[in-house]
Amino acid sequence: MIKLYKLTDGDGKTWGGTQWGPGVSHSGTGEGELCGWGWIHAYEHPLIAVMMNPIHARFKHPRLWEAEGEIAMRDGQLKCGCKTLTTVREIPLPSITAEMRVRFAILCAMEVCAFRPWTAWADRWLSGEDRSEAAAEDAARAAYAARAARAARAAEAAAAWAARSAYAAQAAAEAARAAGHGIDIFDIAEKACSGVHTFTEETE
What we know:
Layout: E1 2-8, E2 13-14, E3 18-19, E4 24-27, E5 40-42, H1 46-52, E6 63-75, E7 79-91, H2 98-110, H3 116-127, H4 133-145, H5 150-160, H6 165-179, H7 185-194
Antiparallel strand pairs: 1-6, 2-3, 4-7, 5-7, 6-7
Helix pairs in contact: 2-5, 2-6, 2-7, 4-5, 5-6
């Protein structure tokens, strides 16, 4: 058994009315796709549980639980599946701001998008030099014209919607999903929430 994290709604339930709580276990059949009913979904990092909620569970008032289980399937670092999962105790939900979500989206996209006009905008946003919606829209148009990575376009959307946190949250999660499985999402989430950023080589 390893430590995992489970997200529930405000009543401690997941879809279908499944009730969770201290010492509560539930099992699936262990069959089918990860997104199906055969697996109990969990996360390997608490920040990822919160970051991905807007496109995974979509809980409006989520609660976070430390859990235990054996991972049998993974969607990269974005989500995992266990045949049996036990919630051990409730833990504080990480407080993630809209700015952190935008930073997360941009850092994910920078792992897979080297299109210079877009990365130049990303550096300016991350440094605080230019966070205007107009600049974000210009970056988006350039990325679309160059057919740059979908993650980059999602990151731009997160920045453009920074003042509307619900939209920014969804766009940030989309950027992480679009970036794929070849990047360290855990490390990126920690950097995004701590404000750490290494600029692209061209601007150092």
